[in-house]
Structures are given as structure tokens and as C-alpha cells.
Amino acid sequence: MPVMKGWRVKTNSEMTRRAREGVMEFLLVNHPLDCPICDQGGECDLQDQSMAFGSDRSRFTDIDFSGKR
């Protein structure tokens, strides 16, 4: 829904901050921040944003579903 005349949009609230952190966390689920193995070689927009948000690690862990132990 587009912003309409008379609306007030808050972009610097606690709710917005939490939403941004959640989106960043999901973006990082399958993206390691181990830059030496990355094709971007340290020139990564996603890495810069994750460091700015302070979310350089995820609460999700890798789970091995291969059945090997």
C-alpha cells in the first residue's frame, strides 16, 4: 500500500528497528559472514549492513539432516 497524503510514517522506532533486525537475521541464515571464502572478498553490502545493525551472527544453527553422526 503506498503512502498517502496526510499519513505519518515512522522509520526510527523500536518496532521498525526490530523489524529490520529480523529481516537482516533471515538474510544471514544462508549467508556466512566469513569473508575470505566469499566471492565478494570483503566488498559485501550485506556484511556492511549486518555490522551496522550489530547482527553479525544468527540465533539459528546449522542442522545436519544427512543422518550421519
Q: Care to describe what's here?
A:
- GO terms for molecular function: iron-sulfur cluster binding; metal ion binding; NADH dehydrogenase (ubiquinone) activity; oxidoreductase activity.
- Residues 15-54 form the 4Fe-4S His(Cys)3-ligated-type domain.
- It holds the Pfam family NADH-G_4Fe-4S_3.
- This is NADH-ubiquinone oxidoreductase 75 kDa subunit, mitochondrial-like isoform X1.
- It comes from Diaphorina citri.
- The chain is mostly helical and 69 residues long.
- It has a domain at 18-53.
- Helices cover 35% and strands 0% of the residues.
- The protein is built from 2 helices and no strands.
- The protein has helices spanning 14-28, 45-53.
- The longest helix has 15 residues, at 14-28.
- The chain starts with 13 loop residues before the first helix and ends in a 16-residue tail after the last helix.
- The model has no long low-confidence stretch (mean pLDDT 75).
Features:
69 residues; mainly alpha; elongated; iron-sulfur cluster binding; metal-binding; metal ion binding; iron-sulfur; oxidoreductase activity
